[in-house]
Structures are given as C-alpha cells and as structure tokens.
Amino acid sequence: MHAWPASEVPALPGQGRDLRIHNTATGGLVTLQPGPVARIYVCGITPYDATHMGHAATYNAFDLVQRVWLDTKRQVHYVQNVTDVDDPLLERAERDGVDWVALAEKETSLFREDMTALRMLPPQHYIGAVEAIPGIVPLVERLRDLGAAYELEGDIYFSVESDPHFGSVSHLDAAAMRLLSAERGGDPDRPGKKNPLDPMLWMAAREGEPSWDGASLGPGRPGWHIECVAIALDHLGMGFDVQGGGSDLAFPHHEMGASHAQVLTGEFPMAKAYVHAGMVALDGEKMSKSKGNLVFVSQVRRDGVDPAAIRLALLAHHYRADWEWTDQVLQDAVDRLDRWRAAVSRPDGPGADALVEEIRDALSNDLDAPTALAAVDRWAARQNSEGGPDTGAPGLVTRAVDALLGVAL
Known about the structure:
- It is a single chain.
- By secondary structure, this protein is of the alpha/beta class.
- The protein folds into two domains: 20-286, HUPs (Rossmann fold, 3-Layer(aba) Sandwich); 305-405, Four Helix Bundle (Hemerythrin (Met), subunit A) (Up-down Bundle), CATH 1.20.120.
- The chain is 43% helix and 15% strand.
- The chain is built from 13 helices and 14 strands.
- β6 and β7 form a beta hairpin.
- α9 packs across α10 (327-344), α10 crosses α12 (369-385) and α11 packs parallel to α13.
- It is globular and about 75 Å long.
- The two termini are 31 Å apart.
C-alpha cells in the first residue's frame, strides 16, 4: 500500500531542541533523545468515515513530532497502518450494500487526499492489515507455542496474564479495563475465556466474511492488536521512540499491543513513550463514527476553506486537550491565516530570528502549538502595525511556519 506525496520541509538556520513529551505510561514528561534515526509508529484509520476532524487532530499531533525531530537534523522512520479488514468496516459495507474492499480503497484514497492537502508528512511504510497477514500468522503461532495463547471454539486468544508488565501503559484497574474492553471491540463476556480481558489474536473464518490461510491456525483473519504489533516489529523493532494515536487507543489497543510484543520478544518496553492525542467534540459530544456526529476534512475543503486554515484550527488546541469543533474555531483560523499572509507579503519586517527560537521552544515543550501560534501572532501584529527594516524576515517567517507548523503561507 502506498502513502501520499511528501511536501518539502524548508531548512532553517540553527537547530531544534530535543522533544519533551507526555508519556501516558509514566504519567509525566519525558525527554526523547533518539539516535540519528527517530522511530515512530502511529495507528492508522479503519477506512470508513474518513477523514473527520478527530482523525486530523491526531495525525496533526504526530506530524509535529516529525517536524521537531527533523529540525534537530535527525531522520525520521515513520510507520502507519491501515486496518483494512475489521468488524466495523465489514458492518458498514453490509449496511450500505457495498463491497468491503471497494469501501476500504475509497476511504483510504480520500484519507490520502486529505493528508496531502493538510501537508501531513507521509510515513515511509504505510501498511494495510491484509498485506500484513503473512507476517501476523507466525507471530500468533509463536505466542501459542510460548503458552501465551489458547484456542476457544477455533478462535485464538492472547492470555494477558502471560505478560508481567500488562497494565503498564494505561494503569487502569480491572473494572475500568473490562468496561473499556466491551466498549472498544473486546468481548469480555464471552464464556470460556481464561480472563475476560484476553483479546483475540486470530478469528476463525465465519460464514459470509473474508478469511485467509492461517497455516496451523486454520482459515480466518487477524485480531486488531496483533496487526499493529506485526507491522511495528517488522519495520521498527522493539524499543522504538514513540507509539502514537488518539487517547481512546491507550486501552485496549496500545496496552494489548505492548503485551503481545513484550511476550514475543522478551523485551520491555515496546516503545519508549506512549503518546496520545485528545478527542475532538461536536455539539457537546465526542466525534465518533458510531454517533455519526462528524465534520469531514473533505467537506470543509469542498466548502472552499483553505487547508492551511483547517490546519491552524487544529494547531490552536494543545494536542492532549479535548476540545470542540465550532464554526467560530474555523473562522478564527481563517482570520489568523489572513493576518499571517498579510504580514509576510511585505518586503521587509521586524527581525524574526527570535521568533524561530520561540516556535522551537514551544514545540519542544510537549508540542505546545498554541504558544507557538501566539508567538507568530505577535510578530504579525508588530509587522502589520509598524513594520521593520529586515528584508529577510518575511521569508524566514514563511519558512519557519512551513517547516515547524506545516502551514503554507
């Protein structure tokens, strides 16, 4: 599966700071100091109802991570998956009377278009669950051979008790885990499981549903968590720098994936930092595909809104915050974009070297994009009111806003 084209990232004078970021697993900030190549895995979409603003906010956060690392003169090895076979996708296809493969391809294509328009830097490896199945099957077999997996009516489950570190990502108690498991794709009430929290690794073939050759596992399809584990281990290995996604993935998805990988490799932890973006609401409720209260990037673009304004609307909120999408949020972003473009359109202006450092400081401090925007606002206000003598300043601001914030002026 191919990703989307990369926009050029302008080079800036000087060098960025190492990133301090909130690690869900420790509950505090950690300073990441990758080697020459920083490694990040971000969980991708299940391709239906793409791309809504909740998606966009999440991928915007991890785009900033990449940009901070690139500004430190590191390379970035970024991997993202597409869950192109899963129960919600199959259910949507059946509801709409369409082929599930065609639906997945259509929505994935739309996602690529939206990511391109928003100037999100693409992953080096963009891998669908279906294409990962040949690598998933041996991992499930190995977990079974290690005694960490068991069969129940043809399905294969992972035993969470096989990982002594289980719970170290989300730090939730058993009751909270059970509740979230039921809400987020698990089956804690299924009779016969060793532990209600045990997640499925391999679902035996069901009549009328797609299945693949599972070698000794029998025909079927993979569970949700093992998909990301197989892709991450194949392309990044253990101990990569950031595992990212929305806050609703901390449990069960990232918790379960970490346990799968840790049992498979005997190493801990799977990732140095588990980083989670907040949720975006509409009319007082979290945007969700199940509720249908979604604002789509593609629709806002079709309404004539510049994608740079959409990106500024996302950047106006700290990535870990839960916030609400409103018409006013978008209008504020449109107005900000107009002010910034007016400011950089002049032939000279106030010196901008200090501004570049302010943006760097803000982003290196847990991706504090709102503080970075406020710094650009101050420069633009000074430029639009009194100007300045530096002929290089407007160009430097343009490059800095593009390189560090992904906004094309």
